[in-house]
Amino acid sequence: MLKRSIFSFLTLFICSLTYAQVAPQSNTTTNNNVRERSPRGNPEDTEVWEPIPNVVVPGEINFNDPPSDAIILFDKDNLDKWVSLRDESPAKWVVTGDYFTVNKATGDIKTKEEFTNYQLHIEFKIPEEIAHNGQSRGNSGVFLAATNGNAGGYELQVLDGYNNDNKTYVNGMVGSIYKESIPLVNPAKKPGEWNVYDVIWTAPSFNADGTVKTKARATVFLNGVLIQNNVEVQGETAYIGKHEYVAHGPAPIKLQSHGDPSIPVSYRNIWLRKL
Predict the structure, then answer these.
(1) Rounded CA gap, 128 and 61, in Å?
(2) Domain range spanning residue 145?
(3) How far is CA 159 from the centre of its chain?
(4) Residue of 125, 148, 170, 157 whose CA lies nearest to 265
(5) How far apart are the first and last CA of the chain?
(6) What is the structure's pLDDT at 39?
(7) pLDDT digits (tens, 9 = 90+) for 48-76
């Protein structure tokens, strides 16, 4: 009964959101200690370091049982719903019972199925023994729609953010729409504990000539706490330069194998409801 009450509350609250309340901004990276230079520009130009979101301690929350109409993208034992981004071969990340861990040698993975608008539940864990700092501390990402654009889609950042101890630009911290929207608050749990994202994604739409008809919107809860309130996404979340849209239709969800040197992140309990 408690699980159903929590789920009903989140669903009702999300449905009441009608206007974006966080102005999008620009900012992200690969390694906080090594700044890359590119003919396209300097990644530091789109980093925002203030304001730092206040730390919030989340209450207990449990979503072990998905709703009856959910599409189960990972429950346990196998990654049959996922393929390698590189060549669409079977996903080769490491499955251990009811969770799986990024395999950095094999690259990103994506869902076999493509989606438009949806409600997504996904849990992630930063390793307890995590080392390094900034963007090199437990970096991964949930791409809410994986595209063929230069940025590869729209990233919801995964990173160690516990207690704001990991210093990085705030539009690249955990819970950010990468280099765009800073989270309202920071309810991230400590390394070694499972974090929970619940996302409402409204995909962008495009005119026949490829121009943007409506921009994408995202509402995000982290550990039951609202951190992105129906924000308008300004384009694909590029590491360097301006965020722009590239016309696309239904798209897979992608999980990032980041090139930082830290111990890889794990995921579990992934389900989706089409909207």
Answers:
(1) 20
(2) 2-274
(3) 10
(4) 125
(5) 24
(6) 60
(7) 888 999 898 887 777 678 999 999 999 99
pTM above 0.90, yes or no: no
Closest by CA to 108, choosing from 274, 273, 267, 272, is 267
Among candidates 86, 6, 22, which has minimal Cα distance to 219?
Answer: 22
Q: Which sign does the torsion angle of CA 174, 180, 182, 187 carry?
A: negative
Q: Token pair 């996904």 is at which residue?
A: 122
What are the residues whose beta carbons fall under 8 Å from the beta carbon of 43, sequence distance 6 or more?
Answer: 28, 29, 35, 36, 239, 240
Choose among 181, 168, 189: nearest CA to 215: 181
CA 144 to chain centre: 7
CB-CB neighbours of 123 under 10 Å:
18
Secondary structure class of 145 (helix, strand, coil): strand
Our count of domains for the chain comes to: 1
Q: What is the CATH number of the domain that holds 203?
A: 2.60.120.560
**The one-letter amino acid at 87:** D
Listed in sequence order, the DSSP H helices in the chain are 2-15
Q: Using one digit for the tens of pLDDT, what is the confidence trace for 10-62?
A: 444 444 443 333 333 333 444 444 444 456 689 888 888 889 998 988 877 77
